[in-house]
Every structure is written in C-alpha cells, then in structure tokens.
C-alpha cells in the first residue's frame, strides 16, 4: 500500500469537509459487516470515538475470498476515497480502494459478538471489554475527567504532589491496610514474644499500601500552600458492594489557610467543574450511555451543575432521618445520634428528602478520623462528607486540627504511634488548613450513570478477584 498518513475516525468526524474528496488511511477493528453480492458495508471503530466509520466495498473490485477474514473483531487497514454518504446514519463514508487485514477474529471463539452482552458477562471478559461501545465510552469519559481534574487544580495554582504508595503510617486508622512484606510467610522470623520480626523485613519495619495520601499531603500543603494528590489507594475492607473497590484512585487536595467553609466551596466548585467538563467534552459518549442505560443521565448531570448543594450539620441530618422513621420510613440500619450513617441514610437525605447533593458537616468525633478539628462543643469535629444521588458519599474531608496539644491528646487517646513527623507540621509554624478526598471511580460512576463501580475502572480489584 502507498504510504498515506493515518487519520483517526474522531478527526474525520470532527471536520469531514477537510477530508471529503481525498484519499484517507484508516485502521481499526471491525464492529459489523453486512451487505449483498454487489456491495459490502463494514462498520469500523478505532477507539478514538464511539462513532463508527462506514467502509464500502464495491464487490466488482474485491473478491469474497478477500473479504472473508473481515468478521466482528478483526483488525484492518483501509485506504480509500472519503465521500458524502447516501445512506442514513452517517454523513461520510470511505469507498475502499486498498485493504490489508492485520488480524482475524474467529467468530467461533471471539467472545464479543455484535449482539449486546450483559455487563456481568463482560466483567468475566474484562480483558476484552474495552473493545465494546459501552466500555469505550466509559474509558474515554474516565480519561476526560482525569484531565479535567489536573486542569482545574493547575488553573487554580495548586501543585500536584506525589505521596508514597508504600507507607508505614495508617491515615484513616480503620485497619484496612494491605501489608507489604518480603518476609517468608511459611518461615516467619519471630521476636521473643512470638510476633513477626519486622526488623528482618525489607524496610526494617512493618509497611503497607496506603489508604490515603492525606497525611503526607499535609506536609506538602504546609510548605507549598495548596497541593493535590491523584493516585491509587488500597483498602482491604471486605466490602462487596457496587461502590467499593480494593484498589481505587483518589484525588486529595490539601490547602493551608482554608477553613471548613472554604473547603466546602472548593469541593462544590470542583465537582461541578468536572461534571460540566464531561458534558461539554464527552457529548457523544454520554449520549450513548443515556440511550442505552440511563434515560435520566443528562438531566441528573445538569441538575448537579446548576443547583447549590445543601449544607447541613450531621445532628440535623439525624433528626430528619428520625422524623422519617417515625412517619413509617423503614431503614435496614439503626439511626441515632452517634451512628455512622449507612448508604441508605445518605441516599434518603439526597434522593428523597432534599432531592439534591448534600454536604453533611460536624460529625461526632468518635466516628471520624483522629486528625479532624474539634468543634467548641467538644463532641463534634469539622468533618464534611459530600453525598450524591445514586452514589452516597462521593467526597470525605475536613478542617484539620492545627493545635498541637489538642491533636497530641487525640493521638494519645487512640494510642497512635510513629506520628512524630506528622506532629512536626503542628510543632513548627502550624496553620489552619483543610482538605478532602474525592473517590475518582465514584465520580466516574456518577458521570457515566453506570450502576457498578467495577465497570468504571479497566481492571477492578475486589475481594477474591485479582485477574490480569
Ligand atoms: O472518606 P475517605 O476514607 O477519606 C479519606 O481517605 C481522607 N483521608 C480524605 C481527605 O480528607 N484527604 O475516602 C475519601 C473518598 C470517599 O468519599 C469515597 O468517595 C472514596 O474515597 N472511597 C472509595 N472509593 C472506592 N472504593 C472504596 N473502597 C473507597 N473508600 C473510599
Ligand atoms: Mg469517608
């Protein structure tokens, strides 16, 4: 074949007039082939967009034998003339001139046939599902959101700060860490009192995968002013729910000189920016997901962008839930002041009571992490959880306790050790500061309207599953 520069299908549809009447060179995977003995139509997808390019084969120029390998899933290279299309459904098409088949996909065994597959089936074939329309759409939206996040913070003067994935601290203190060790598990070196001897371990102490970059992020914020992290986090909680992963990505901004109100303002602006970015830049993919999965998707996304979030203290939230219970609303888990709210409670507040996102603040200190700033009542802390329709908690954050003595008292109360480096942020030049963590997959879940968090990350990790 003659050497012509390859064009992506996305570029062709972005400016078809630039290519019309010219030879184009396209490469991709065949979605479908249909036609008759005179003419054959191939729908070609190259992953750059959800849209397929129609390739027309005039069968007076090609033999049946030449087209035989072109089945669903096969990969081809085509050169031909881009022309306005007479058929409906597409504006332009390619009149095939030259064909090269890269790879066949035996229809007897290729798992992705042109009929739609269930998401459950595709989860079993997760190594191939990026080739489906649905996962193509989700993964392109995921990319756009990641880009929007970096853009949002960069444009605001935040610095991207890299916190470690292997750590010797436990940020959230929930006991859900994966250990990192090179000790031989079948022949553990033991200390005198029969415990594993971590001094023999790779790092000379016990180490784990991080559950959050926040504590290290605070070191960044109390030096650079405003930082954010964006990386994988790991939690070994045995949560088999549609909203939990064992490995997920988190974005954690941390800002010096921010109080809780500033923190809430930032969180609300940030989420709205991301959702708006996706609406503006992923229209084709969102339209596809709306048509096939979720007829209310765009309405819900626009609603979030256009409306203020409710801001409500936890104590008020609990009162509303107790009222609802008195009036006959049933919940599976108990509601009382001091209870950690379950997803059903969060979603009641958001979906049934207020019918908009809610930022719940000032939680009892017992159910929140040690680093949160104590309120004057001595009972609650300046926490903020952002609760979303369909998702429940999408963001968790707080103003941090900046007072050395108060924080040390909390550290002692909970028996935390090895925190001296962290206490230095309060020991030297301490400042009021705040931050939050956004679960990236929960954002992608919301924006795509998918139902299960395992369907918005290419290779999901969850209990009893670690394929690929
Ligand atoms: O509420 P979390 O545990 O907060 C923290 O880790 C803080 N250190 C954040 C901070 O203040 N810098 O987690 C933050 C968010 C949750 O709101 C949720 O969206 C997501 O992370 N998340 C998970 N997402 C998927 N799978 C899991 N197992 C998750 N656990 C938390
Ligand atoms: Mg939380």
Strand elements, count: 16
Low-confidence stretches: none
CATH class of the largest domain: Alpha Beta
The ordered H/E elements are: HHEEEHEEHHEEEEHEEHHHEHHEEEHHEH
Radius of gyration over C-alpha positions, nearest whole angstrom: 27 Å
CATH superfamily of the largest domain: Bira Bifunctional Protein, Domain 2
Q: Judging by the overall fold, what is the CATH architecture of the largest domain?
A: 2-Layer Sandwich
The distinct ligands, each listed once, are: 4-amino-1,4-dioxobutan-2-aminium adenosine-5'-monophosphate, magnesium ion
CATH topology type of the largest domain: BirA Bifunctional Protein, domain 2
Number of domains: 2
Rounded mean pLDDT is 96
- For the biggest β-sheet, the strand order reads 6-10-11-16-15-14-13-12
Global structural class: alpha+beta
Largest sheet: 8 strands, mixed
- Distance N terminus to C terminus? 37 Å
Strand content: 15-25%
Tell me the number of helical segments per DSSP (H or I, 4 or more residues long).
14
What is the helical fraction, as a range of percent? 25-40%
Task: Please tell me about this protein's structure.
It contains 14 helices and 16 strands. By secondary structure, it is an alpha+beta fold. The chain has two domains: 9-103, Nucleic acid-binding proteins (OB fold (Dihydrolipoamide Acetyltransferase, E2P)), CATH 2.40.50.140; 129-176 and 211-455, Bira Bifunctional Protein, Domain 2 (BirA Bifunctional Protein, domain 2, 2-Layer Sandwich), CATH 3.30.930. The strands form three sheets. An eight-stranded mixed sheet has the order 6-10-11-16-15-14-13-12, with helices on both faces. The protein has a five-stranded mixed beta barrel with strand order 1-2-3-5-4. A three-stranded antiparallel sheet has the order 7-9-8, with no helix packed on it. A hairpin with a 7-residue loop joins strand 4 and strand 5 (92-103). Helix 5 (133-155) packs across helix 7 and helix 5 crosses helix 14. The mean pLDDT is 96. Bound molecules: 4-amino-1,4-dioxobutan-2-aminium adenosine-5'-monophosphate (4AD) and magnesium ion. Magnesium ion (MG) is lined by residues 385, 393, 396.
């Amino acid at each position: 074949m003659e050497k012509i520069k390859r064009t992506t299908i996305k570029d062709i549809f972005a400016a078809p007039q630039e290519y019309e009447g010219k030879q184009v060179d396209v490469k991709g995977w065949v979605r479908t082939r249909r036609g008759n003995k005179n003419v054959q139509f191939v729908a070609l997808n190259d992953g750059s967009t959800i849209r397929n390019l129609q390739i027309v084969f005039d069968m007076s120029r090609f033999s049946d034998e030449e087209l035989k390998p072109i089945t669903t899933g096969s990969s081809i290279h085509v050169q031909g003339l881009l022309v306005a299309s007479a058929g409906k459904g597409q504006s332009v098409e390619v009149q095939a001139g030259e064909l090269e088949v890269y790879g066949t996909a035996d229809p007897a065994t290729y798992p992705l046939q042109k009929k739609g597959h269930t998401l459950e089936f595709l989860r079993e074939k997760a190594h191939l599902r990026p080739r489906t329309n649905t996962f193509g759409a989700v993964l392109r939206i995921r990319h756009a959101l990641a880009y929007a996040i970096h853009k949002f913070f960069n444009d605001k003067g935040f610095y991207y700060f890299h916190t470690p994935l292997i750590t010797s601290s436990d940020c959230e203190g929930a006991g859900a860490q994966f250990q990192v060790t090179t000790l031989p598990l079948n022949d553990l070196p033991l200390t005198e009192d029969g415990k594993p001897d971590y001094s023999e371990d790779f790092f000379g102490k016990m180490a784990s995968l991080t559950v959050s970059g926040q504590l290290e992020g605070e070191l960044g914020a109390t030096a650079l002013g405003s930082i954010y992290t964006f990386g994988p986090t790991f939690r070994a909680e045995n949560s088999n729910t549609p909203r939990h992963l064992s490995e997920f990505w988190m974005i954690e901004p941390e800002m010096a000189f921010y109080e809780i109100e500033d923190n809430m303002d930032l969180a609300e602006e940030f989420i709205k920016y991301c959702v708006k970015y996706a609406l503006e830049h992923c229209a084709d993919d969102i339209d596809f997901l709306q048509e096939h999965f979720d007829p209310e998707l765009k309405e819900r996304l626009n609603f979030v962008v256009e409306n203020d979030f409710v801001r409500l203290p936890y104590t008020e939230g609990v009162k509303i839930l107790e009222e609802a219970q008195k009036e006959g609303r049933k919940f599976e888990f108990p509601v009382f002041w001091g209870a950690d709210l379950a997803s059903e409670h969060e979603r009641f507040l958001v979906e049934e009571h207020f019918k908009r996102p809610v930022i719940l603040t000032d939680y009892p200190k017992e159910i929140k992490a040690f680093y949160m700033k104590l309120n004057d009542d001595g009972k609650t802390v300046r926490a903020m959880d952002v609760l979303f329709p369909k998702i429940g908690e999408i963001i968790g954050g707080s103003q941090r306790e900046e007072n050395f003595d108060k924080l040390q008292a909390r550290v002692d109360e909970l028996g935390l050790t090895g925190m001296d480096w962290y206490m230095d942020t309060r020991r030297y030049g301490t400042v009021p500061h705040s931050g939050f963590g956004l679960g990236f997959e929960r954002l992608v879940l919301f924006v795509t309207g998918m139902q299960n968090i395992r369907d918005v990350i290419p290779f999901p990790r969850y209990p009893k599953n670690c394929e690929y």
